[in-house]
């Protein structure tokens, strides 16, 4: 049970959502946006989150879209991971979303919630980093489009009252050869010790990682080692795993050495698959 009362708002437009947030805040109320609600409800039950109002983004058509135009595949931020897994316009994202959580949770978890939530893995961001996606953000009185690399640096950098409307994946990136790979401690349905999304374009492998450090990343020095010529896949993987943006995590789920062992082999497998070795 959630041990406090709160207002539930379900605006039908981006403008209405932004105004609802401003009005509630001006009335001195604590507000938060609501996607699938899985994280909000868990934290609220534990008493780790309290709020006077939630604004459900699932009433806004732009946040629910799964469509394509001439330039982009458009992924609504309130689309569930199951819907994205079934929508195959960007297969790397579909396959990677299919590996997050269990089926029942994926029916509710939204991609916006995965990117914005407190659980640090944020695996759905990996295919977006690899494809140099754009993010449409509700900001000020309207919308702004920004590069994923500017708005996501380990965590989502958006201000109070702002929310993600859509993710735009360039169509030129959507159907490249790819690898989606996840190593967990126990079952397929678990948090990742290593999660990799990679694609290959113009002979170069692009690769993003979660589970190894405290945040997901795509890191150019690591990617350069992956693409170094005249070395075997395992040599390249060993050198790449030594070029992390910060030391690997060492915790009860997996030791640092074990994570690095898995990472080296996962990178080598990724190289072999993308280079057809
Ligand atoms: C059983 C289970 C297993 C999981 N396993 C994994 C896993 O393997 N890998 C992984 O990466 N994650 C995993 N997660 C984490 C999950 O992806 C996050 O908890 C995510 O936040 C849940 O999404 P939601 O839509 O339900 O979020 P909500 O509870 O609706 O919201 C979470 C936070 O995101 C904010 N938010 C939601 N939508 C938006 C938006 N469009 N714009 C801005 N802010 C927004 C909310 O304000 C809130 O702060 C798991 C979660 C569960 C419950």
Describe the structure.
With 277 residues, the protein is of the alpha+beta class. It has three domains: 7-57, 2-Layer Sandwich (Uridine Diphospho-n-acetylenolpyruvylglucosamine Reductase, domain 2), CATH 3.30.43; 65-170, Uridine Diphospho-n-acetylenolpyruvylglucosamine Reductase, domain 3; 180-275, CO dehydrogenase flavoprotein, C-terminal domain (Enolase-like, domain 1). Helices cover 36% and strands 24% of the residues. It has 13 helices and 13 strands. The strands form four sheets. The chain has a five-stranded antiparallel β-sheet. It has a three-stranded parallel β-sheet with strand order 1-3-2, with helices on one face. A three-stranded antiparallel β-sheet has the order 11-12-13, with helices on both faces. α11 runs antiparallel to α12 (233-241). It is globular, with a radius of gyration of 19 Å. The relative contact order is 0.11. The site of flavin-adenine dinucleotide (FAD) has 29 residues, from β2, α2, α7 and β10.
What is the terminal separation in angstroms? 53 Å
Helical segment tally?
A: 13
Percent helix: 25-40%
Rounded Rg = 19 Å
CATH arch. level architecture of the largest domain: 2-Layer Sandwich
Q: SS-based structural class? A: alpha+beta
Can you give the mean pLDDT? 96
Shape, per Cα inertia axes = globular
Bound molecules: flavin-adenine dinucleotide
How much strand content do the residues show? 15-25%
Secondary-structure element sequence?
A: EHEHEHEEHHHHHEEHEEEHEEEHHH
- Number of beta-strand segments: 13
- What top-tier CATH class of the largest domain fits best? Alpha Beta
Total domains: 3
């Amino acid at each position: 049970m959630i041990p406090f009362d709160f207002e539930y708002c379900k605006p039908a437009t981006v403008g209405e959502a932004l105004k609802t947030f401003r009005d509630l805040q001006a009335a001195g109320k604590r507000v938060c946006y609501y996607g699938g609600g899985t994280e909000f409800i868990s934290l609220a039950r534990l008493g780790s989150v309290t709020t006077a109002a939630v604004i459900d983004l699932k009433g806004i058509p732009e946040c629910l879209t799964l469509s394509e135009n001439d330039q982009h595949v458009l992924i609504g931020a309130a689309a569930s991971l199951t819907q994205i897994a079934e929508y195959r316009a960007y297969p790397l994202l579909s396959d990677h979303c299919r590996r997050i959580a269990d089926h029942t949770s994926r029916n509710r978890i939204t991609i916006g919630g995965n990117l914005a939530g407190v659980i640090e893995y944020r695996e759905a961001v990996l295919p977006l980093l690899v494809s140099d996606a754009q993010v449409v953000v509700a900001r000020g009185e309207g919308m702004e489009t920004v590069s994923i690399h500017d708005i996501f640096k380990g965590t989502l950098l958006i201000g109070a009252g702002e929310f993600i409307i859509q993710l735009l994946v360039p169509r030129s990136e959507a159907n490249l050869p790819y690898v989606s790979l996840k190593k967990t401690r126990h079952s397929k349905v678990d948090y990742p010790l290593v999660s990799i999304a990679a694609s290959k374009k113009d002979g170069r492998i692009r690769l993003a990682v979660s589970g190894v450090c405290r945040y997901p990343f795509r890191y150019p020095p690591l990617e350069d080692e992956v693409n170094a010529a005249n070395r075997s896949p395992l040599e390249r993987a060993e050198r790449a795993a030594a070029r992390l943006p910060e030391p690997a995590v060492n915790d009860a789920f997996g030791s640092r050495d074990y994570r690095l062992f898995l990472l080296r082999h996962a990178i080598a497998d990724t190289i072999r698959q993308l280079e057809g070795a």
